[in-house]
């Protein structure tokens, strides 16, 4: 596995000298150096031609060396195929986190020309299928199972209500509780890999974990209260869906309001310490879910913070998404509550609305969010590259004329040449004057000698 230096490889940052192309020669890895503002992918594309493409061996190489050569070529081909996924798949690992020398934030602060990259991707690897599977299982368990069980057992099997909801309550939330227990255990551990930035003590829960605590407590209370009597309270049992929206969209709205007003954090909010400026709500939700549930850890938190601080387009996207999810979520929750509580709506219909509409709305909003984020990040990348081109042009305009391209360079060379000729002319004139003085002295001496004779 190639060495990882703060999310970048040395071979992608420096030209490979002949002495360094040999695999047996160990070199000290260093941080990449860039002379202009570029994206991580652009930097890799520009320097990919400098990678070694072949190895030469002596004709007398042994069979073991030949086998080693073929193995090296296969490994090299695999590494070249994985070059596009290298940063995302290997930077956010616990092994790299333990061995690295500095954080991604400090690295990108030293290289402001780079667009900070997020050490996580859904394009490659098993993480995307794992996280997508968890989300699909949680939605199926939290939304589809209660609806199917209720209508099938009530209208298809004529089962009494308290028996039906005893089954629903026993089954509901199983994957959610397991995932909540796993993420809580990760945050309780002494190891700091999954914890928020700046929180090194044990039991360092992030804001998403506290929101899940509130959500699970409220939903469990509603299920217990509604299913406890022999005659179940069906309208109360229809409220878990809107309650989930209240418990998730409500805190996101409050956090986003704090951020918009510029208020300070009254307590620690994930990676934001008490007394610091609050960021939009979606910032913390995305950071916590990818860092803990998806296993991105602190490297993702550091890259996420560096990206947010460096890119105005990214900040605007996070702010807009916070309002996009919080305000409509509260509106849908209030609308579902009104429909469930008013008596003209039948209880069976209210139950389907309460359990189905919130999750249907979340699916529609997620389908809108995915292309929105992809478009915004593509626009961000192109804007960053355009800015780098503008800055490069400004640097060229402000450079000395001798280094400028085109006519300016010719004029500069002419000026330097003229300056050199002027110096030569001055020296020649001085020599001529000296020679004239010497000639005048010699002629005067000859004239005096002739007079004496």
Task: Tell me about this structure.
Keywords: Membrane, Transmembrane, Transmembrane helix. The chain crosses the membrane at residues 131-153, 159-182, 203-228, 243-260, 323-345, 351-373. Residues 1-77, 392-453 are annotated as: Disordered. The chain is mainly α and 453 residues long. It folds into 2 domains: 10-48 and 67-110, no CATH class; 127-293 and 311-385, no CATH class. It is 67% helix and 0% strand. The chain is built from 16 helices and no strands. It has helices at residues 40-47, 63-81, 86-90, 94-99, 104-110, 127-156, 161-171, 174-188, 207-227, 234-237, 240-261, 281-293, 297-310, 312-341, 347-397, 407-452. Helix 6 runs antiparallel to helix 8 (174-188), helix 7 runs antiparallel to helix 9 (207-227) and helix 11 runs parallel beside helix 15 (347-397). The N and C termini lie far apart (101 Å). Mean pLDDT is 73; it is low at 1-62, 76-89, 399-428 and 444-453.
């Amino acid at each position: 596995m190639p060495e990882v230096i703060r999310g970048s490889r040395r071979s992608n940052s420096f030209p490979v000298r002949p002495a360094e192309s040999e695999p047996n020669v160990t070199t000290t890895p260093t941080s990449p150096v860039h002379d202009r503002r570029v994206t991580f992918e652009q930097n890799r594309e520009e320097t990919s031609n400098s990678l070694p493409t072949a190895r030469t061996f002596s004709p007398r190489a042994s069979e073991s060396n030949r086998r080693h050569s073929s193995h090296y070529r296969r490994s090299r081909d695999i590494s070249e195929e994985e070059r596009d996924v290298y940063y995302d798949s290997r930077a956010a690992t616990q092994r790299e986190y333990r061995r690295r020398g500095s954080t991604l934030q400090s690295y990108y602060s030293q290289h402001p020309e780079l667009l900070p990259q997020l050490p996580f991707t859904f394009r490659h690897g098993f993480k995307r299928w794992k996280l997508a599977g968890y989300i699909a299982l949680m939605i199926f368990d939290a939304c589809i199972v209660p609806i199917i069980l209720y209508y099938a057992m009530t209208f298809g099997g004529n089962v009494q209500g308290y028996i039906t909801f005893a089954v629903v309550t026993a089954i509901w939330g199983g994957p959610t509780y397991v995932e909540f227990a796993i993420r809580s255990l990760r945050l309780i551990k002494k190891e700091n890999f999954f914890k928020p930035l700046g929180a090194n003590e044990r039991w360092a829960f992030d804001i998403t974990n506290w929101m899940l605590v509130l959500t699970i407590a409220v939903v469990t209370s509603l299920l217990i209260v509604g299913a406890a009597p022999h005659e179940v309270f069906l309208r109360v049992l229809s409220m878990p869906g809107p309650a989930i929206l209240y418990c998730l969209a409500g805190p996101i709205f409050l956090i986003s309001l704090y951020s918009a007003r510029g208020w300070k954090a009254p307590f620690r909010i994930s990676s934001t310490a008490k007394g610091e400026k609050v960021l939009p709500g979606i910032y913390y939700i995305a950071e916590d879910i990818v860092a803990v549930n998806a296993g991105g850890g602190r490297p993702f938190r550091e890259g996420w913070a560096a990206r947010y601080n460096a890119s105005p387009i990214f900040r605007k996207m996070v702010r807009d998404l916070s309002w996009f999810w919080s305000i409509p979520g509260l509106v849908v929750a209030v609308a579902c509550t009104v429909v469930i509580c008013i008596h003209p709506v039948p209880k069976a219909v209210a139950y389907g609305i309460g359990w189905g509409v919130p999750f249907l709305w979340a699916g529609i909003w997620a389908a809108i969010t995915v292309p929105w984020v992809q478009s915004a990040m593509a626009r961000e990348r192109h804007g960053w590259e355009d800015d780098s081109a503008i800055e490069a042009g400004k640097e060229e305009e402000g450079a000395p004329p001798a280094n400028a391209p085109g006519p300016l360079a010719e004029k500069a060379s002419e000026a330097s040449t003229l300056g050199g000729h002027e110096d030569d002319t001055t020296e020649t004139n001085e020599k001529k004057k000296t020679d004239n003085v010497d000639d005048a002295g010699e002629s005067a001496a000859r004239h005096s000698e002739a007079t004496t004779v």
